[in-house]
Amino acid sequence: MDKIVSLCKRRGFIFQSSEIYGGAASCWDYGPLGVELKRNIKEAWWKTNVHQRNDMVGLDSAILMHPKVWVASGHVEGFVDPLVECKACHQRFRADAVPADKCIACDGELTPPRKFNLMFKTFMGPVEDEAATIYLRPETAQGIFVNFSNVLTTSRRKLPFGVAQIGKSFRNEITPGNFIFRTREFEQMEIEYFVKPGTDERWFNYWLEERFNFYIRLGIKKEHLQLRCHGREELAHYARACYDVEYLFPMGWGELEGIANRGDYDLRQHTAASGRDLNYFDEETKETIVPYVIEPSAGADRSTLAFLLDAYDEEKDKEGIRVVLRLHPALAPIKVAVLPLSRNEKLLPLSTEIWNNLRGRWMTQYDDAQSIGRRYRRQDEIGTPFCVTVDFQSLEDNAVTIRDRDSMKQVRVPIKDLASTLAAKLSGEPFEAGEHR
Ligand SMILES: [Zn+2]
Fold this sequence. Notes:
Blueprint: H1 2-11, E1 14-16, E2 28-30, H2 32-51, E3 56-59, H3 67-72, H4 75-78, E4 80-85, E5 92-94, E6 114-117, E7 121-123, E8 133-135, H5 141-145, H6 148-155, E9 161-170, E10 185-195, H7 200-217, E11 225-229, E12 241-249, E13 252-263, H8 265-274, E14 280-282, E15 287-289, E16 292-299, H9 300-311, E17 312-317, E18 320-325, E19 336-340, H10 348-359, E20 364-366, H11 372-382, E21 386-390, H12 392-397, E22 399-404, E23 410-414, H13 418-426
Parallel strand pairs: 3-9, 19-20, 19-21
Antiparallel strand pairs: 1-2, 4-5, 4-6, 7-8, 9-10, 10-16, 11-12, 12-13, 13-16, 14-15, 17-18, 21-22, 22-23
The protein binds zinc ion.
Residues 86, 88-89, 91, 103, 105-106, 108 line the site of zinc ion.
């Protein structure tokens, strides 16, 4: 983990928030490469779950919602952690995270646990009174439930269908930590998949498999993933069943995504609290039903951390240790780097021409500083799948060299075939050394 945190800072993936003021605890900013990586993860999720399916639509709902939403959803009453405070040093802990009744910092006596609501409160409008109190959403899910009828009527959906959303959520965690694993501001990738009651178990199992395989398709090693079933005592107040997709982080197995069968809890609660019908009329059976919902809910920040950790590799070579991020090409922040062999001005026109032709299509980088070996290393360390090298021979034979990040093999290709060759290799065609097209 220390290696990843250091690489993230050194290469511009992730910075401590407000660092020049000493840092804001457990808040992180995504730098130039981190924002590309995280966007690619969200893009892969959106493509898989929205664009490539005919039973899913997207939504982007507001972070600030009517306060009654959180009463109806059960969050005002039930979204709490037991909090204890040390009577001596006044540090606060989650009651279930400290042993017995002694402070882990100073051995002082602890107060009895009290309920601590994890929702962030703020004020809507200029008057700071109780009536104007609202919450930053602790999950994106409720934005989907309160829009159920809007989506149903405007998109003319039939069950089963899903609504997908990516967005920020906020939880005032008592003990955040482990880099971007647990933070108070985080980004979720959530699906609410509405089904007919009675088919919910089948769809629940379907989504378990679907979501587990998503991470494997994007390169996470299977032995670093597991599905864990929640015990009865662990289930959230709304859930009939829940599994976590867990990743083997350096600190142990941790949740990447929760997949829950929420039953008809949310739609019923909002129907009762709002007085608006959130039913579904089944044209075939002429019945009015309240759909059940299966919820695969993933963390974009945790996924980013897992993909970084899983991709990190060190290799011994003749110059010492080669650090390489073996990121899936779809996730790599930079897909192609264009590297002229040297800064000789004869290479400049052709190199920039090649760069300009590629950059409209992929996220690319142009680098002519330092030796070619050093530049390959820099690209390996940030996970760039392919480097294109322009040398003096290129001026004669109109060909360039493509170097593969993982095998370090090189092939020479005519410049006219460069884009199509890169496209094939970025979509998974094996890399054969010495191959000509
Ligand atoms: Zn203490």
